[in-house]
Amino acid sequence: MVVALTDGISGQLGTTLHTALFALWLAYEEKKECLVMSVQPGRRDLETYLIGGGRKYRSGAAEGTGIEAFRKLVKAGFADREGIKECVTELGSHLSLMAEQFYDPVQRTLRDYSEDMPKMLGELEKHYDYILCDVGDERGGLAPQVIGCAGLLVRNIGQNTKGFLRCFKESNAHYAGREVFYLLGCYDAESKYNMHNLRHCYRELNLMNSACLPYCTEIRDACLDGRLLYLFEKWQKGRAGAGLSDFFTSLKKAAGRMQEAGKKGVRVQG
Fold first, then answer.
1. How far is CA 21 from its chain centroid?
2. Cys staple from 254: which of 73, 117, 154, 211, with CB 3.0 to 4.6 Å?
3. pLDDT tens-digit readout, 40-63
4. What are the residue ranges of helices labelled H in the chain?
């Protein structure tokens, strides 16, 4: 299944981080076959957060050739499992990263990928349980192609209700009949705009289609240091403090609800 993670409200921070976190949880904790990628040419935040900008994570773990090599592989008809392995960087036995290695100029990149993206995602779906894609701006160059192929759309929103009505109106207008999941990042449980109150005030939010992830300084620092994967493994080994454990408890709940929402999703094109 393709899961498209987007900035549900313009300027909302955290979409890239949430993409990486869901991929880590599903792959490392639930042993799902996951691929994580971004379709934002010129930005490499996703791989920077996870492994520090594309350096080899473990001795013997080769860095893949990236998304442009994969596009050419698909066009040539050679996108089998072995071919895909040459294009991705394996971050564990169940997690692969498709590095953002688009080519220039931008207009040619967008034209070619607009044509090829549905088939590329279709080939990846043959080999992975989840393809988690950081789309960013829903009006971005490749956003429509990925969203159109997605079985689930995760729209990242915050607790600032100023943009809520527009966000929900967009969901009704553009994603009618699609599975949409709302994720509140940098969540403050002490705010009067907590999940309980927001679900009470906005009928568009309910227990099945929304979740939250609190702000965590240690997580943010790990992203800036390019050590998010290392920090996750540290937590798995029981070497993390209470604050980090609380964060991953929230991540477990959010990932579970997201998967349940995705079970009803269908791929509408591609």
1. 8
2. 211
3. 887 889 999 998 864 555 544 567
4. 15-24, 45-51, 67-76, 81-87, 106-125, 143-149, 164-174, 195-201, 217-225, 228-236, 242-262
